[in-house]
Design brief:
This protein has about 650 residues and is α+β, with helices and mostly antiparallel strands. It has 4 domains: about 270 residues, no CATH class; about 140 residues, no CATH class; about 100 residues, 2-Layer Sandwich (Double Stranded RNA Binding Domain), CATH 3.30.160.20; about 60 residues, Double Stranded RNA Binding Domain (2-Layer Sandwich), CATH 3.30.160. Helix content is about 45%, strand content about 15%. Strands 2, 3, 6, 7 and 8 form a 5-stranded antiparallel beta sheet that branches. Strands 10-11-12 form a 3-stranded antiparallel beta sheet, with no helix packed on it. Helix 11 crosses helix 12, helix 15 crosses helix 17 and helix 15 packs across helix 18.
Length: about 650
C-alpha cells in the first residue's frame, strides 16, 4: 500500500493536494491527489458564484483563514485532505523517467481517498536528513524526483525559474523570488514541482480533449509595442544586443493572466499551463475542476467567456496591488523594528522608514540616527531619499543634517540618484544642469527650510571648503593610491571582465590544492573607495608571498589579483590513462560543491547522491555516497553546521569526479 501524504504549512487546514511516490524502473511513479469540492457542490450554487467574486482564500498570518474561497464550512470540512479521513479526489498518476521526462495516465475521479500523514515543510526536511525517520524514504524519493523535474524543465528550455538550495531561494510558479528557511526549502520545492507538473499535464490532457479550461498564460512583452507608448524604453532596448535583452528578460514580461485561449507560460518554460491543484483556495482551479469532472463523470461542462476572464484578471491585479501596498508599509515597520532593537540600520532600511513608515516620529528618529551614523553619510540613496520624499523637520535637526551632508562629497551621486528615481537620464537637462549647490538647496528645502529662489551662496561654499577638500582633490589622492607601487607591465595582457578567479580555482581543483582566501581592504573613503586585494594564507614557497592588486571596483581588484596568481601556477600533470567518468562542464560556483555534484548528476543522467547527516559532538558529520559507471564513491565531511558538513563531504566527492 502506498503512503499518501499532504505537505503544507504547519497550521494549514485547507489541504487540497496530496501525493504518493515510489520507484519505477530507473525513475518514479508519482500520483497526485487533488481535493474535489466540485464533486459535492453544484456549479450553480450561490457559494460558487461568491467564489468567483472572491477569487482567492484570504489568510491572516498565523491566525489561519480570514475569508475562505468557498463560503460553505461543510464543503471545506468534507473535502480537505486531513489524514485518516476518506475524501473525494481527482487522481493523476505520472510515470517519470530518470532524465525527468513525464508521461501521465488518464486522470481518474476517486470517491474515497485517505491520506496517511500531514507533513509540514519543516518535518519533511527533518525526515529527509534523518535515515531513522519513518518517512525518510518517501522524502528522499520525492526530493530526488523534484530536483530531476526542475532541472529537466529549466535545462531543456528558456525559463525564468531557478533554485538555490544552499540559500533557500527559488522562484514560485508566478515567477516571484522567494526565500525560505533552509529547513523548509526541500519541502517547498517538492510541492512546487509536483503541482507545476500536475497542472501542466492536466492542461495538456484537457487541450487534447478540447475542454474549455482556463489557461494561465505568461507572455513576453513585444518591444515593438512600446514604440508609441514608451518611446524612450523602446529606443533603449532597440540599441541592445540579443544577449543583453535575454539577461533582462525578467523585466520584459506582462503579468500572468487567465484566458480561454492558450498562449503558453514562458516563465515556466511550458507550452501549455492552467491551474488545477488548489480548488479550495483559488477560483480558476475550482472552475477547471468542474470542467474535468464534467468530462470524467458525464456531467455538464461549464464555460467562461473571455470577458469574465478579463474581470478575473482585473480583480487579481487589484488584490495584488493591495498586497503590494501592505507589503510596502510592512517594509517601513520592519526597518523601524530593526532600528529599535539593534540601534542601527542600513541605507536601504533608512530609506524604507522615510518612504514607507506612516509615523512622523519614526522618521525623525531615523534622521537623528542618520546624523550619528557616518556610514549612512556615505550613501547617495540616503540623501536622495530625503530629497525625493520631502519631510520637514525642526530647525535644530535640520542644521545637524545639513552639517552631516556638508561633511561628504556626494552631490554628483545624489543628482544622478534623483534623476534615475524620477526615470530621467542624468545627462538630460530638462531639470537643469548639474550644480553642487543646487543639490544642497534641494536637500535644505525638502527638510523644511523656507524656499527661496535659488542662487549660489558664496558663504555656504566657503563653509563647505573649510570643512572638506574638493571632490577633485580626493579623487586625485585616490588615483595616487592606485598608482603607488604599481609597475606598468604587471597587468600587461589583463582584460577587464574576464573570469580569472574561476580559471584559477578550476586549476587549483585539478592540482588538488586548497584555494587561498582573499582579503579585501578599502584604503580610500566609503564614498571614494580604493580596494586592495591580497591573499589571506601563505602561498607555496615558489609563489610570491606579497601578491596584491588595487582598483576602485572591488570585483576588479579581486580579478586582477587572480590574474597575477595565474602567472605562477604550476602545470597540471598529465592524466594517467585510466577509465574516466563522464565530465561535468562547470566547476562549483565559489565553494558550493553540493550544487556542483547535483548538477553533475543531472547532466550525466546519474542518480543523485545520498546524504546521511548526524550530530557529532559540537558539530555534524555527513556521509555522502554516489555511484558513477558502477563505481561507488564515498565522502565524509564535518562542520559546525549541517550545511557545512554536507559541503565538506560533497567536496570530497567532487574531487573524485
Amino acid at each position: 500500500m502506498q503512503t499518501i501524504i499532504t505537505l503544507d504549512g504547519e497550521s494549514s487546514r485547507d489541504l487540497d493536494d496530496a501525493f504518493s511516490i515510489e520507484k519505477h524502473n530507473a525513475g518514479w511513479r508519482l500520483s497526485i491527489y487533488i481535493a474535489a469540492p466540485a464533486y459535492l457542490l453544484p456549479y450553480n450554487a450561490p457559494a460558487v458564484k461568491l467564489a468567483e467574486e472572491r477569487l482567492l482564500t484570504v489568510y491572516a498570518g498565523k491566525e489561519g483563514i480570514k475569508r475562505p474561497l468557498i463560503e460553505d464550512e461543510t464543503i471545506n470540512d468534507t473535502c480537505t485532505l486531513l489524514p485518516g479521513e476518506a475524501k473525494p479526489a481527482v487522481r493523476l498518476t505520472i510515470l517519470i523517467s530518470d532524465d525527468g521526462k513525464a508521461v501521465a495516465e488518464r486522470p481518474v475521479f476517486e470517491p474515497s481517498v485517505t491520506s496517511q500523514e500531514k507533513m509540514s515543510y519543516i518535518s519533511f526536511g527533518e525526515a529527509l536528513n534523518d535515515k531513522d525517520n519513518a518517512h525518510h524514504n518517501i522524502a528522499t524519493l520525492a526530493t530526488d524526483c523534484a530536483r530531476r523535474l526542475f532541472y529537466n524543465r529549466t535545462l531543456s528550455g528558456d525559463t525564468l525559474s531557478f533554485i538555490n538550495e544552499e540559500a533557500g531561494t527559488y522562484t514560485d510558479e508566478e515567477g516571484r523570488v522567494r526565500t525560505v528557511s533552509l529547513r523548509e526549502i526541500h519541502g517547498q520545492i517538492v510541492v512546487q514541482e509536483f503541482m507545476i507538473l500536475n497542472n501542466h499535464l492536466m492542461t495538456v490532457w484537457a487541450e487534447a480533449n478540447k475542454l474549455p479550461v482556463l489557461y494561465r498564460n505568461h507572455e513576453p512583452i513585444d518591444i515593438s509595442d512600446m514604440k508609441d507608448s514608451h518611446p524612450e524604453i523602446y529606443e533603449a532596448y532597440k540599441s541592445m544586443d540579443i544577449e543583453k535583452i535575454n539577461n533582462m528578460k525578467n523585466h520584459l514580461f506582462q503579468p500572468a493572466k487567465f484566458s480561454t485561449v492558450n498562449k503558453g507560460h514562458f516563465g515556466l518554460g511550458l507550452n501549455a499551463y492552467g491551474t488545477f491543484s488548489s480548488p479550495l483556495r483559488r477560483y480558476p482551479d475550482l472552475h477547471n475542476q468542474y470542467v474535468v469532472l464534467g468530462k470524467l463523470l458525464g456531467r455538464p461542462v461549464p464555460t467562461l467567456s473571455e470577458a469574465r476572464c478579463e474581470a478575473i484578471n482585473k480583480t487579481l491585479l487589484s488584490i495584488k496591488s493591495e498586497r503590494s501596498e501592505a507589503s510596502k508599509a510592512s517594509a517601513g515597520y520592519s526597518a523601524m523594528k530593526v532600528l529599535s532593537t539593534t540601534g542601527k540600520v542600513t541605507a536601504n532600511q533608512f530609506s524604507q522608514i522615510i518612504k514607507r513608515h506612516p509615523s512622523p516620529s519614526a522618521k525623525i528618529r531615523a534622521c537623528y540616527h542618520l546624523v550619528e551614523n557616518a556610514e549612512l553619510h556615505a550613501s547617495s540613496a540616503t540623501w536622495g531619499t530625503l530629497i525625493t520624499h520631502p519631510f520637514p523637520v525642526n530647525k535644530v535637526l535640520r542644521g545637524k543634517l545639513m552639517n552631516a551632508y556638508d561633511g561628504v562629497s556626494l552631490s554628483r551621486g545624489i543628482w544622478d540618484f534623483i534623476h534615475l528615481t524620477m526615470g530621467i537620464k542624468p545627462e538630460d537637462n530638462s531639470y537643469g544642469v548639474y550644480c553642487e549647490d543646487k543639490v544642497r538647496f534641494l536637500l535644505a528645502t525638502s527638510l523644511g527650510e523656507t524656499p527661496k529662489k535659488y542662487k549660489p551662496n558664496a558663504s555656504a561654499q566657503d563653509n563647505k571648503k573649510s570643512q572638506r577638500r574638493s571632490v577633485d582633490e580626493q579623487e586625485a589622492e585616490r588615483r595616487k593610491i592606485l598608482n603607488d607601487n604599481t609597475e606598468d607591465n604587471m597587468f600587461a595582457g589583463y582584460v577587464p571582465g574576464t573570469n580569472y578567479k574561476g580559471a584559477v580555482l578550476e586549476h587549483f581543483q585539478k592540482l588538488k590544492f586548497t584555494a587561498p582566501g582573499v582579503k579585501m581592504i578599502n584604503k580610500g573613503k566609503p564614498h571614494l573607495p580604493v580596494w586592495v586585494a591580497s591573499f589571506e594564507q601563505t602561498s607555496p614557497s615558489e609563489w610570491p608571498s606579497d601578491l596584491s592588486a588595487t582598483d576602485t571596483a572591488k570585483k576588479a581588484a579581486e580579478a586582477k589579483l587572480f590574474f597575477l596568481l595565474q602567472k605562477h601556477l604550476p602545470d597540471i600533470p598529465a592524466p594517467v590513462a585510466t577509465p574516466v567518468a563522464p565530465q561535468v562542464n562547470t566547476g562549483p560556483a565559489g565553494k558550493d560543491f553540493k550544487s556542483a555534484v547535483n548538477l553533475y548528476c543531472q547532466q550525466n543522467k546519474l542518480p543523485f547522491p545520498t546524504f546521511n547527516t548526524r550530530p557529532d559532538g559540537a558539530g555534524f558529520t555527513c556521509d555522502v555516497s554516489l555511484t558513477v559507471n558502477g563505481v561507488e564513491m564515498a565522502g565524509t565531511g564535518s562542520g559546525a553546521r549541517k550545511k557545512a558538513a554536507e559541503q565538506a563531504a560533497c567536496e570530497v566527492i567532487f574531487s573524485q569526479l
